[in-house]
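Before the break, one more example. Copy the sequence into your notebook; we will annotate it together after we see the structure.
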Amino acid sequence: MLEKAMNELSFLSADITKLEARYGKAVEKLKEQKEPSKARRTRAQDMLIALETMKQRFKALERKVFAIRQEMLRDVVSDADVVSVE
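Here is what the structure looks like once it is written out:
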């Protein structure tokens, strides 16, 4: 489960980077044009919405990975033999 979440995090991170670059290019093209078309503006807005959605998903996955790791640590600590030294 942890490995799957970590793989998904890496793929999602790469997708976010690619989409950020594409969004940046789209915004530059919008600024270059005197009167950009409605379709081009809508496309840029849709990219921004998709980017925000991907970032939210990335944060949720990070929280999931953290929770899994904490659960694993709790399991290890609870199973460990504790020896007190006096």
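The two ends are 40 Å apart (CA to CA). The chain has one domain: 2-77. Try to locate both features in your own notes.
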